[in-house]
Specification:
The complex is a heterodimer.
Chain A: H1 2-13, E1 32-35, H2 38-41, E2 45-49, H3 54-63, E3 67-76, E4 81-89, E5 98-105, E6 110-112, H4 121-132, E7 135-137
Parallel strand pairs in A: 2-5, 6-7
Antiparallel strand pairs in A: 1-2, 3-4, 4-5
Helix pairs in contact in A: 1-3
Chain B: E1 13-17, E2 20-21, E3 26-27, E4 29-35, E5 38-45, H1 53-59, H2 66-69, H3 77-92, H4 98-126, H5 131-151, E6 160-161, E7 164-165, H6 171-196, H7 199-205, H8 213-219, H9 223-227, H10 235-238, H11 259-283, E8 303-311, E9 314-322, E10 330-334, H12 336-347, H13 353-362, H14 367-371
Antiparallel strand pairs in B: 1-4, 2-3, 4-5, 6-7, 8-9, 9-10
Helix pairs in contact in B: 3-4, 4-5, 4-11, 4-13, 5-6, 6-11
The chains are: A alpha/beta, B alpha+beta.
């Protein structure tokens, strides 16, 4: 039930349905929503949005009663892009896991913060900033969380050398 | 009891709780702006035991990464290793023999009881009662002995393998576990008489630090913290994995959201874990403990994989981004106490510092698990 509601709301925001064949080709994927195979992947809905659509997409998820599982990044160095991945789930027996992802250029890694919607995004965004150097525009306190307070390196970037 | 008060800014001072402080049970620092005994603002500072486990996840093969998982939460390590093996088995499509899954469930629940026992003792000690810790550690010792006999280690277990287990349980394990269950039930009665009904204990916790269900949702709180706030959410029930759907057990939920509710949830959970262990032993099927069709070098298909499990502290998630290699391209660990602790800063504003420390205890923190 909630899966269809959330999918429709996200699709209204984005371009339209995605062909399921594009499921495992993350590098060529256009923005859009797709239903993933829960049994093999462990989540139901996968929405790729642009950085500008992010806050609107997260608002939809919030309005449908989801809680924030985590935020993380991935360095796609070959495509010269960074990806930010948001995981959501619900306190419900009608299990529905939603992934929202957005890609940004490596030279200018900026996405808007979602701390105004989910207060709990604060630490997750700081951690992602620590590890990848991704800036969350509008974040109230974007200082290192897990790394030392004077850290100027981002260890999960693929070109990081210790 | 702890109503927020209006102050002039010049009346406050900064107090550092930690990084070395007994109440934080590890190296955690909370920078508190204080007005007398009242907290005006708190900022948790993490990272003192950060070891970059996620980078190690990229550098090591999936099998080499197995020991890392038990070094996150040293009190309930089996739950985390369970999550890791399940995530790989899901992504690689490895079938696990039923006997292995049953033994996994039994050992995870034993470990959960051990974790809750240690928390119980430490929590009461935070409030000034020393004896319960000694009783709790004694009971926990039996579990550690049982688990040591079958896994070979007492805390940092590396017992599960992709597709099964490292070795089978013996009669000694089964006998010792069967002996342990009635003894533990007796102890639970003792704890109830010794601590749960104690008037001082109640006064310290009742109505203190109420956390609303909405706050839990915004911060992503799970486990006993969420269940103490009236949220009926347990991954074992809501998103059944392993063989948990075969067991008859309840999920304790309390509506109050205060520190006492979180205490009650965990104490009730011990009994529910005992029920699962009991049923697991009764139903334990015969058969192999390792799948025959396990590939020697595990490579996952390209794509994203997520697996959540219910550990002693809440919902632990592993997100693997695979590019088809024998290492993960990106491995993210979603730690439950990280999200649970995050709501501390907001909730403790306006509270008395002693109430806030009791609240912190009721969150059941394990610092290496937060810092990873």
């Amino acid at each position: 039930m909630i899966l269809e509601t959330t999918e429709q709301a996200l699709q209204a925001l984005l371009a339209g349905p995605m062909p399921a064949s594009a499921a495992d080709q993350a590098d060529v994927r256009a923005n859009g929503v797709m239903i993933t195979d829960y049994k093999s992947h462990g989540y139901h809905l996968d929405a790729k949005v642009s950085a500008e659509q992010l806050v609107a997409a997260v608002t939809i998820v919030d309005e449908n009663g989801f809680f924030l599982e985590s935020i993380t990044g991935v360095d796609w160095i070959k495509e010269n892009q960074l990806e930010v991945i948001y995981d959501f789930s619900r306190y419900d027996f009608d299990t529905c896991r939603v992934v929202i992802r957005t890609r940004i250029p490596r030279e200018q890694p900026v996405v808007p913060t979602i701390t105004a919607i989910y207060a709990g995004a604060n630490w997750h965004e700081r951690e992602t900033h620590d590890f990848f150097g991704i800036k969350f525009a509008g974040h109230p306190h974007l200082v290192p969380l897990l790394l030392p307070e004077d850290a100027d390196f981002h260890p999960l970037l693929k070109d990081f050398k210790a | 009891m702890s109503a927020p008060i209006q102050l002039r800014p010049d009346e406050t001072f900064i107090l550092n709780v930690g990084p070395q402080h007994p109440a934080t049970h590890g190296v955690l620092r909370v920078k508190m702006e204080m007005d007398g005994e009242y907290i005006v603002k708190a900022e948790t500072v993490l990272g003192y035991v950060h070891r970059m486990h996620e980078k190690m996840g990229e550098n090591r093969t999936y099998a080499q990464y197995l020991p890392n998982l038990s070094r996150l939460d040293y009190l309930g390590a089996l739950g985390y290793t369970h999550g890791h093996v399940l995530s790989i088995e899901r992504a690689a499509g490895i079938e696990v023999p039923e006997r292995a899954e049953y033994i996994r469930a039994i050992t995870v629940e034993l470990n959960r009881v051990a974790s809750h026992l240690f928390w119980f003792g430490a929590f009461v000690m935070d409030l000034g009662g020393f004896s319960p810790l000694m009783y709790a550690i004694q009971d926990r010792e039996h579990i550690l002995d049982i688990l040591e006999g079958v896994t070979g280690s007492r805390l940092t277990y590396c017992y599960y393998r992709f597709g099964g287990l490292y070795n089978d349980v013996d009669d000694e394990f089964i006998e010792a576990t069967k002996r342990f269950i009635p003894n533990m039930r007796k102890s639970l009665k003792k704890y109830a008489a010794l601590v749960t009904g104690n008037i001082i204990f109640h006064k310290r916790l009742e109505g203190i630090a109420p956390v609303s269900a909405e706050t839990c949702r915004k911060y992503g709180a799970t486990g006993p913290v969420a269940r103490g706030s009236g949220i009926n959410f347990d991954v074992r029930k809501n998103e059944p994995y392993s063989v948990y759907s075969d067991f008859d057990f309840d999920v304790p939920v309390y509506q109050e959201g205060d520190s006492l509710a979180r205490y009650k949830v965990r104490m009730d959970e011990i009994e529910q874990s005992l029920r699962i262990i009991e049923q697991g032993l009764a139903k334990l099927p015969a058969g192999p403990i390792m799948t025959e069709k396990k590939p020697k070098n595990i490579k996952l298909p390209v794509g994203d994989f997520y697996q959540a499990v219910e550990t002693a502290r809440g919902s632990f998630g592993i997100r693997i981004v695979s590019d088809g290699d024998k290492n993960a391209y990106r491995l993210k660990l979603r730690s439950p106490t990280y999200s649970n602790m995050h709501l501390f800063d907001e909730t403790c504003e306006g509270m008395l510092i002693m109430d806030a420390l009791a609240f912190m205890g009721s969150l059941d923190l394990v610092i290496p698990e937060m810092d990873r």
